[in-house]
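User: What would this chain look like folded?
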Amino acid sequence: MKITYDRTLCQGHNRCYSLAPELFDVDDEGYSILILAGPTDAQVTVDVPAEHEDRARLAADNCPEYAITIAE
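Assistant: Here's the prediction, encoded as structure tokens.
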């Protein structure tokens, strides 16, 4: 499974961090950081470890801006 995070769409609600802290963190400006990719100002796509796939889906399903997408 791959997860794509588009920082340009993020509005800083941090639902992803609340639901999947093993995958997301928050930067100094209040926007999410995909831990597997590190800080970025753009779109990134990375592989999700199998043990975190359920949390990745949960984060994507709860992002109000659709800044997180999943590809199986």
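The longest strand covers residues 2-6. If you want, I can go into more detail on any region.
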